[in-house]
Amino acid sequence: MIISVLVKQAGLKLQENAIFLNVVSGVTLSETAGDLGVAAAICSSFLEFPIPSGIAFIGEVGLGGELRTVPRMEKRVNTLAKLGYRTCIVPKSAEKVLEASDFGDMMIIGCRNLKEVINKVFVT
Predict the structure, then answer these.
(1) Which of 8, 39, 44, 81 has the lowest tally of Cβ within 10 angstroms?
(2) Which residue has the higher pLDDT, 122 or 26?
(3) With contact defined as beta carbons under 8 Å apart, do 59 and 84 qualify?
(4) CATH code for residues 1-122
(5) How much of the chain is in helix, strand and coil states, percent to nearest 5?
């Protein structure tokens, strides 16, 4: 589904590419919080532009390309901050709530849809 949304809503021409997703052995993707990270990984490979070091992604991707918040956002971002991530891309709807929390030096960037994520992460 994420590939279809990237084609339709973000305008990436992925139709002629074989796309394989490999996750760490033993990990099962059983919730939607990883949708945005998977989409970012596909964009990174297709655009041949590496994801900058220290960036994490949390959020669900809807059929219209919109980003949706997921449960326990504050706890997830706090864990990322403790792991040393410096930037976290989240749905715009979660940005204000997260900015009220103290995550040290971590920068929270809210995006409404996949196009915004691509423009903020992959466009120099």
Answers:
(1) 8
(2) 122
(3) no
(4) 3.30.230.10
(5) 40, 15, 45
